[in-house]
Amino acid sequence: MTRVHGTAPERTEVRVGFMPLTDCAPVVMASVLGFDEQQGIRIVLSKEASWSSVRDRLVRGQLDAAHVLYGLMVGVQLGIGAAPHPLAILMGLSRNGQAITLSRRLAERGAVDGSSLAQLIRAEPRGYSFGHTFPTGNHALWLYYWLAAAGIDPFRHAYSVTVPPPQMAANLAAGHMDGYCAGEPWGARAVRDGSGFTVATSQEIWPDHPGKVLGTSSAFADACPNTCRALVAAVLQAARWMDASGANRSAAAEVLSSPAYVGAAREDIAPRLLGRYEDGLGNSWDDANPVRFHDGGAVNHPWLSDATWFMTQQVRWGLLKKEPDYEAVAAALNRMRLYREAAELAEVPTFSALHRSSRLIDDVVWDGSDPHGYLASCTIRR
């Protein structure tokens, strides 16, 4: 492939962290399939134990880039819970494919959806606990949004705990919590072991929502732009390969099942990677909005309205004490020019728009045009 920008990568070895989740597939397969070598770099993968480890190692420069939660990137940029640290989103890695899992014990008491869970909580108030994976991250915000849409205040009617994704199903089975929101295959694991059931997929909450991103520090993006372009181009090639066929996804499931990557059984990974769901209550379906990695570049494009949504939710739940300059923060975080140049290298189409429109589970349309008004419309908030 011809390198259109002509300047060699400043660094040929790139340390990329990932969490053991199905949606780490683009960074893993970019390395496994040699797309990194085609772009003149070598991805050195680092399996991480928690999202806090990913955050700390990115900030300290121990990782050059990472498969990382969009909400985590926004939180670090804005200094939620610690001093702010400038970061850079290089591209989107995935959409959809997360799940909210409730315990079998709740199903036995009649809580099989949001409305019946709300009825149970009103009838039997107690300390209901729900797990998520990082305080400012995607899973906390999907969980809170889903609970609020059902009329459940996630802070008055329940409390939340932070648990690394691979430990979710075991903690549910042990009775340490009533449910959780996490990435796959850890929702599927609870269904297969019988400890829980899928009450909602994240794509039911927000069809084609943003998921993980390829993140780096602002310092690394500034110092090594050619390396970043090469890295994004390689991961774009892998993302396109992932979405090209079911056969490719099946092959990726086999790779991901290795202990070096996700380390879960192939039967936990493959079905939902292919869009085939069983909820643990006897229902099965082929999802219309399964996890996607490319979708003609729409998954990977840095949509500023996506970043703005995470900020509104962080304000809504008291993680941010005041509303930020939404558009300025989103534009600073997303390296649009660098992404477009990398997409040119990978021959991936780009989009002129910076915002997109979606209808969420509560029938509210989100397009990023009026974040203040959107936030003011939220009846349940801290």
Keywords:
alpha/beta, D-Maltodextrin-Binding Protein, domain 2, 5-stranded mixed beta sheet, about 40% helix, globular, disordered N terminus
In short, what is this structure?
The protein has 382 residues and is an alpha/beta fold.
Describe the protein's architecture and organization.
It is a single chain. This protein is α/β, with parallel strands linked by helices and 382 residues long. It has a domain at 13-95 and 210-280 and 287-302 and 324-353: Periplasmic binding protein-like II (D-Maltodextrin-Binding Protein, domain 2, 3-Layer(aba) Sandwich). It contains 18 helices and 14 strands. It has helices spanning 25-32, 35-38, 51-59, 70-78, 104-108, 114-123, 138-149, 168-173, 186-193, 202-205, 218-223, 225-244, 246-256, 266-273, 304-316, 326-333, 336-346, 371-376; strands at 13-18, 42-47, 65-69, 87-92, 98-103, 128-132, 158-162, 179-183, 196-201, 212-217, 276-278, 284-286, 358-359, 365-366. Strands 2-1-3-10-4 form a five-stranded mixed beta sheet, with helices on both faces. A five-stranded mixed beta sheet has the order 7-6-8-5-9, sandwiched between helices. Strand 6 (128-132), helix 7 and strand 7 (158-162) form a beta-alpha-beta unit. The chain is globular and about 65 Å long. It starts with 12 loop residues before the first strand and ends in a 6-residue tail after the last helix.
